[in-house]
Amino acid sequence: MRQEERLGLILDRLSKQGTLGVTDIAQELGVSTASVRRDLEMLEEQHLLSRTHGGAVANSLVYELPLRYRGGRHKDEKRRIAAAALEALGEGTVSIGLTGGTTTTEVARALAMRSGLTIVTNALNIASDLALRPNIKLIVTGGTARSESYELVGPLAEASLDGIHLDLAIVGVDGICVQGGLTTHHDVEAHTNRALIEHARRTVVVADGSKVGRMAFARICPVTHISELITDPSADPAELANLREAGVKVSIA
């Protein structure tokens, strides 16, 4: 297991349990207690947890977990969602916009096998993955880079979209529900993602089940602005019913 995956799993356990012990996490991950202590020290230096005697506790502050530590969460579900997103392209879809996020990153990797597509993205990691693909025309927005999400955001990013008309926008979110709409942790990121949606004829949200029924800090847009949600079987059935009632097509991958 790579260190970044290990760190992500440690933070995932900590977010659910509030505390964890060095010995327990070492046994679960199949590594030495010395490795776990080094991992905890690194995460404490980034203010993502506080170490205790024999373990760690979650910080009281609520913050956005950096993208590099989120990649290991719900990986199988995200790959199935990405495969379903390819099926949702439909005939005549040539130009696609992609926001940042771990699920949209999986979608980008799946799209990389296609030919004749134009992909517009504000995500630096997605652009890096696609830049060497001669079968795809890649357009990257300008903007200010966010280290947490690898996204380019702000007025320069939004100005880059002027004059562009997309067949489809595929959007990742931190939360989606009828009451709150599409939401994310950062207000400027939300505004930039909304601009991408406004330049697309159709919008599909890709989100694992943990995001359904959840509301993050900043609203991107109401659910009435999207045509489809692709998620996994762990999503809250009651919230999925609410979304369908609001006119959103819901697909389970």
Descriptive notes:
The protein has 253 residues and is of the alpha/beta class. Helices cover 37% and strands 22% of the residues. The chain has 9 helices and 15 strands. It has helices spanning 3-17, 22-29, 33-45, 75-87, 102-111, 124-130, 155-160, 187-198, 237-245, and strands spanning 19-21, 50-52, 55-57, 95-98, 117-121, 136-140, 144-145, 152-153, 168-172, 175-177, 181-184, 203-206, 218-221, 228-231, 249-252. It has a 7-stranded parallel sheet with strand order 6-5-4-9-12-14-15, sandwiched between helices. Helix 2 (22-29) crosses helix 3 (33-45) and helix 4 packs across helix 5 (102-111). The protein is globular, with a radius of gyration of 19 Å. The model has no long low-confidence stretch (mean pLDDT 89).
